[in-house]
């Protein structure tokens, strides 16, 4: 098995006291659109630790390949080195690296268990999943959230709870009813039914929105220290001025960032890594406490996705905007483009109505309303699914014999692999098998 990746990440800090405001707002699933269309799963990219789910003999794919799951799937999520699938019956299937418990099930001593998709035992029907580099989370229909795996920072393993790594599902926010979850590389964001945003995990890049810079490193003089790392891994509300009386109705997470939309407004509050303006602030320093992004607040967002150094935004009318670093073509603005310091329309997609976007670390994807998948950015390991290990600088149609005439529904990209949800049947053929 390949050695576990090392990455710069976050560190400990002390939470800022939060003055709770009694709220009359009720956030329901009407505010948060959950996937419901069922389909089948395709994968592409690196599979050396089982994240493709194609068995121990398949270590890489450069074109999308079908995963034999035997169940209809409504959502997919690519973690750093593992994959999570949500079935229409509310079951969670996982496969990939399980060194730190990201699969939520026992694989030790079981031959090829990491390479084989298997169910995670959970105490109820799951309606949403998310995954980071070494953790997975699941939201149940009753509002409970269970998570497993670990968070990591620049010093190594942080654990997921006060007990350290959690290799089986652990109820992570028992006192709140949650309506949406989102995962970055090493943090989780929770939206409650009263419009509050909670976070937990790594704080080094400011992604928790409640730990000041001086306390974000576990070795800092003013930091919480290793003995109090529980303040980071225990969910707590983001830090907001009580006078603002803000409540939120949607959340998203980038690799090292958090986005939250103010209820009944377009205002987007952000925190996290901003060295390439990827969270839409004028500074190039991390933002440790939530701040309104004037750039992101210009649009009505259907979805926001963040990679390591770039972000993609999908507007409600199906337009794609990008901001951040240009290297490897991840912006999709052409080979000679500059870094995007403000949100920039991906004009080559202007003739398409886009329904889903996703960022990997250095990759970007978009799904059109008629089911076409476009990919661009870093092509190493074949994670773009374009048949080559080349970088692509503009959105390029991902074609595959097995995807022909199927409609792509959703896409998620991780460290070196990509997971695609497609229609189960050939939806573009007539009953006699001829193409329409």
What does this structure look like?
The chain has 436 residues and is mainly β. Helix content is 1%, strand content 38%. The protein has one helix and 30 strands. The strands form eight sheets. It has a four-stranded antiparallel sheet, with no helix packed on it. A four-stranded antiparallel sheet has the order 3-4-5-6, with no helix packed on it. A hairpin with a 4-residue loop joins β4 and β5. It is globular and about 55 Å long.
* DSSP summary, beta strand count: 30
What is Rg?
20 Å
Head-to-tail CA distance between termini = 46 Å
Based on helices, strands and strand pairing, what is the structural class? mainly beta
Share of residues in strands:
35-45%
Cross-sheet strand order for the largest sheet: 2-1-30-29
Report the biggest beta sheet as strand number plus sense, adding barrel if it closes.
4 strands, antiparallel
The whole-number mean of residue pLDDT values reads 90
Helix content: under 10%
User: Are there runs of 5+ residues with pLDDT below 50, and where?
Assistant: 1-23, 427-436
What is the tally of helical segments?
A: 1
- Assembly form of the protein: single chain
Q: Which overall shape is indicated by the principal axes computed on the Cα atoms?
A: globular
